Amino acid sequence: MANISLEHLVPVFVAFLFGGILKGATGVGAPFLAVPIMAIIVDVPFAVAVFLIPNIISNAWQSWRYRKDNPSTRFATTFAVAGVVGAGVGTMALAKFSSSFLTTTIALIVLGYVVFRLNNPNWRLAFGTAQSVAGPIGGVGGFFQGAIGLSGPIAVTFMSAVGLARKPFIYTMSLYFFAMTMIQLPVQIAYGIMTLERLSYGIVALGPLLLGMTLGDRLGQRLQREVFDRIILVVLTLLAIRLLVEAFT
Description:
By secondary structure, this protein is mainly α.
């Protein structure tokens, strides 16, 4: 059993708070901040399990709140359902692939996209094309969620290329993440990863996360479109760097 001591509760609280601010402002990024910090303090399975309930609740809340900003039911639903299917395939294929090869490949793809966007700031993927490839891209993102536990680099890169405004972006990403986390819950319970102790920590962690999301939402409403796009590129860059560090350490 892993326990978080009182002296470690402060950095965990801060991690969830700032993760919530980023999530509230952009719809993504909370696990990127909170899970690694918890993993350093305890261990990865504990951190992933603790964050699952806050992940489910936060994505459910945002997808419900921004439901009227759904850019297209076909697009968002296809993207989410494909993510669930891909996550199942990725989990089964986990033992057949080198995780370092997968993470390095994704990181290089993401960094290449960031460089391309910085050199072509006005480029966007046509929405009609995006609808046509939402299934395959969502499935690939889900595959990497199952294989290495991280779909964000693929999913967020794709959504950044589509170039949706902040609210439709948040709705689509929240629905996507919500669908995949709902699949993770029974799997974690079946494998003994989710315990009552970890569930209780997750419920407590909702406090700072939702507080941060409330603050982030207020900040996000003031963001200009260009600033929002740049924040997403920064998040992608940090995700890619994290993947490279994991691959080579």
